[in-house]
Write a structure and sequence with these properties.
globular; single chain
């Protein structure tokens, strides 16, 4: 698929623009507030402006040219921030960024799997039978363990991995190279969702949010 497929790029660009606008509004106040809580010197306006410039370049770049994630750039604003204060999700910067971040992450994953394979390979870990049945309209491969995922990764090179975080005690083994990894779980288990982001998941969202966005995310593998 072309890097300029407008049917995919337009929604992604719109989500990136919305996320960037939210970061412009909330990065400075978050940094000042968090620095005060942590007993650090707040960043200068020049640091905030420089970071927003980097965020703009990142989010406007083609997904194959993006050199890091936006949260990594945000964390660099306060490099000496203790771990417990570092943002693990966009909602940690401001609650209004939660949906914006999820929408951008889902759109980015959608473009990636559409672009890099005519029939993308999607692997799902969803042991609950009710949740598992919701994937029936889509061409996906179900696995029952992280070990089986790693076996498949050797032969099938998955494009997208979807993980029910409520059914695993450790998200780390589910993060594999060269694949987008999205987790979902109970909205009250915020530490579990944050942990998934910490180990490298592209997105971790409440179960209800994931299934609301699933049709858009998995459109490339819908069974016709």
């Amino acid at each position: 698929m072309s890097r300029t497929d407008s049917s995919d790029e337009r929604p992604l660009a719109e989500h990136a623009e919305a996320l960037l606008a939210g970061l412009v509004d909330h990065l400075g106040p978050w940094a000042d507030r968090t620095a005060t809580i942590a007993g650090l010197q707040p960043p200068t306006p020049e640091v905030i402006d420089s970071t927003l410039g980097e965020l703009t370049r990142l989010l406007q770049a083609d997904i194959d040219d993006q050199w890091t994630g936006p949260l990594e750039l945000v964390r660099q604003v306060l490099p000496d921030l203790p771990e417990q204060h570092r943002p693990a999700a966009f909602a940690d910067i401001d609650p209004s960024l939660h949906e914006l971040g999820l929408a951008w992450g889902a759109a980015k994953a959608h473009v990636h799997i559409r672009r890099h394979r005519s029939v993308p390979t999607v692997v799902v870990f969803a042991p609950d039978l009710g949740d598992r049945s919701r994937f029936d309209p889509y061409r996906v491969t179900h696995v029952r363990s992280a070990g089986r995922l790693r076996e498949l990764a050797i032969t099938d090179d998955p494009d997208l991995v979807i993980v029910d975080l409520d059914r695993t005690s450790d998200p780390t083994p589910w993060r594999i190279d060269n694949a987008h990894v999205i987790g979902f779980g109970s909205h009250v288990e915020t530490e579990r969702l944050d942990r998934a982001i910490d180990v490298g998941f592209d997105a971790a969202m409440a179960r209800s949010v994931f299934f609301r966005r699933m049709a858009e995310l998995l459109e490339p593998v819908r069974i016709r």
